[in-house]
Specification:
2 domains, single chain, 10 helices
Amino acid sequence: MTAPSKTHLLVKEGDALDSDGRVARGQLTRRRVAEALVALLNEGTVEPTAREIAERAGVSLRLVFHHFSDLEDLHRAVGELQFELHWSRLATVSSDLPLSIRTALVSKSRGDLYEEIGAVRRAGMRKIDTSEGIARVIDDSNELLRLGLESTFAPEITSLSRTGLSPTDLLDMLDWATSWESWERLRRHQKMSPDRAVETLRRILDTIFECSDFSAQPS
């Protein structure tokens, strides 16, 4: 898996400027604009206009399009910002913990993550079929989460003994159960509270493992 492209890397306030400051100042402006779009999405503005984004960032409309070729370019930068703030810092649950503890921790951490990124992820999903850049960021994020599952549940994945169920089968089931799409269904379509959705996810994971006979293999 590769991290999102660094072509439009977003620097932070306080990062060192280059010799004349222009490049870094431009990147700081890009970051402020991307943060403004995230804030508007999180507040419930489904399709913020460029003017709304500029006003929220405290910059001119002209400056928005000076730093971003179009709104797709801006949404791609938002994907990079989300990766920095959330996905790249997502801790992996240790495989040394008891299985019941791991399923509980994974369920809670996924729920917390998905609640934080929900509005921005929905905006990205609306554009995934028309934006290669956004699709790539979402694919990278999904792969990062899958790798986390593979590490956390490595003892079970590598010691399956049930006929007809391969390690990939088990990982696929875990990946589906803990995906953003599954969380979205629990929260928005089945209208569960965050706590109930976390508990439901935990029970789903426990059930998957109960139906996966790996106990006969050496640990």
